[in-house]
Amino acid sequence: MSACAATGASTTPRPDPALAAPLRPLLAAGRPTAVAYSGGRDSTALLQVARALAAEVGVPLHALHVHHGLSRDADAWQAHAAERCAAWGVRFHTTRVQVTAATGEGVEAEARRLRYAALASLARAAGCEQVLLAHHADDQAETLLLQALRGAGIAGLAAMPADSVREGLAWHRPWLAVRRSQLAQHLHDQGIDFVEDGSNADPRHARNRLRLGPLPALEAAFPGAVEALGQVAQHAQEALECLRALAEQDLAAVQLEAGAVLDVARWAMLAPARRSLVLRTWLAERTGAPAPRRLVERLLAELRPGAPPGRWPGPGGGFVAAYRDRLRWAAGGEAAAPTGSPTGRLLIETAAGDRVEMRPAAAGVPLRRLTALSWRPRRGGEQFLLHPRGVPRSLKKCFQAAGVPAWQRDAPLLYAGEALLFVPALGLDARHLSDDGPDLMALCWVPRQAG
User: Residue 232: pLDDT band by 50, 70, 90 thresholds?
Assistant: First the structure.
């Protein structure tokens, strides 16, 4: 990552009023502002107008450039962007990302995800509070049509929001009502050059196919089609806000353990459409990504109160598991839920990377007993004491009494010599528990992190 402060700013021309109007209130607040600047037509126009307005109100302006390395011209584009910022007196920040195409999401999707993450990192490092993006009305229409052709729901038809907050930053698209032709004409009138990305004419990309063929034909047959599609996106965004409010209301009624668990019995009492909405919202919150349509469909068809334990595969190697009318999400590689906060020092680790940590406690196992430790697989017949006032019982009965689902019962058991010491998802065998004496340790199971 590098940054270069620009010097020698040239005279700032008066911005086009039609293009300046949507930006003016964003810059008038005086917040340090960044422009996502590729060097192309749209972002060049945005940087030029934002620069003029920032000079009027004295707002610090930064340009953020992400080098994807996908084109042989990427170095030249980066150099052009740096030179333009130097001439315009705009602070320039750039970083490189590596698109591997190994994630299964496609080159375009991976590049987009990496670009936004890089922009956020650059903006925070520059002390910016908001980022301006140059998407315009034509981009919005293309996005909506692509989502519709993929069978998207309301969230997809809402296309790109004008304003959003992510990673502690405000993101703004002030030109969603401005046509691409307006930006091209503005740069022509100002005599400002920009870089041309030859891949924008490559029909292998879905957006290019839509831009080069169907969308112009649609506009020819239906004048004002781009503007109408923009209105559809706005209506969808309003509907999406209503659905989010409804989902929050329903989730509050059916989730447990701070949202980690869904109560299947309560969930089943909702109307079918609301059950689907709750599942999609809950899964998106758990996984950080839109819920896979196939997973939601399976859960709607197979999840029932009183049903036997079930398990459904999800994204990233994770899965959804139902046990005793409780639905949980487990990330890829998760073996069992932690039994405490992993804040201590390592005691012992499995070959798979799961570990037990220990920390001083008022009640726990004496440190002197934590010797000759070994992991052993569950073989059957093991006896475990859940509570100091109870009696040792079989692990199966202890798991059942503690409500531990079957998919969390396969982790190895920790022995001290020949004595069963610790069971993941259950904790310390109470026969080793003490509240008197020096060096008492609490133990905590920490599943390996998903890779």
Answer: very high
| Confidence class for position 8, pLDDT limits 50, 70, 90 | very low
Phi, psi of 131 (to 5 degrees): -125, 130
307-355 pLDDT, tens per residue?
888 888 887 777 888 888 889 887 654 444 444 444 567 888 887 777 8
Q: What are the CB-based long-range contacts (under 8 Å, 24+) for 160-166?
A: 160/135, 160/233, 161/237, 166/116, 166/120
Q: How many angstroms separate the CA atoms of 6 and 31, rounded?
A: 20
Dihedral of alpha carbons 341, 342, 348, 354, sign: positive
> Judging by DSSP bridges, how do beta strands 91-96 and 61-67 pair with one another?
parallel
Instruction: Report yes or no: 353 and 322 within 8 Å, Cβ to Cβ.
Output: no
The better pLDDT of the pair 213, 346 is held by 213
Percent over 90 (pLDDT), the chain: 52
| CA 292 to chain centroid | 14
Tokens of 326: 């409780």
Contact status, residue 91 vs residue 85, Cβ threshold 8 Å: yes
Q: In this predicted structure, which of 82-86, 110-114, 136-140, 228-232 has the lowest mean pLDDT?
A: 110-114
Alpha-helix runs per DSSP H in 93-158: 107-125, 137-149, 154-157
399, two tokens: 């798991």
pLDDT of residue 440: 85
Are 137 and 227 in contact by the 8 Å Cβ rule? The answer is yes
* DSSP code of residue 434: B
Q: Which amino acid is at 273?
A: A
3-state SS class at 322: strand
Paired with 348 in beta bridges are 356
Give dist(CA 27, CA 252) in Å, integer. Answer: 38
| pLDDT tens by residue, 40-61 | 999 999 999 999 999 999 999 9
pLDDT over threshold 50, residue 451:
no
- DSSP assignment of 331-368 equals -TT--S--SS---SEEEEE-TTS-EEEEEEEEEEEEGG
- Which structure tokens are listed for 419? 């004595």
Domains (ranges, CATH) in the chain? 2-227 (3.40.50.620), 260-330 (3.30.465.60), 345-446 (no CATH)
Contacts of 1 (CB under 8 A, 6+ apart): 93, 94, 95, 121, 122, 125
In which residue are the tokens 């079957």 written?
406
DSSP state of 330: E
The structure's pTM equals 0.70
Residue for token pair 């891949």:
199
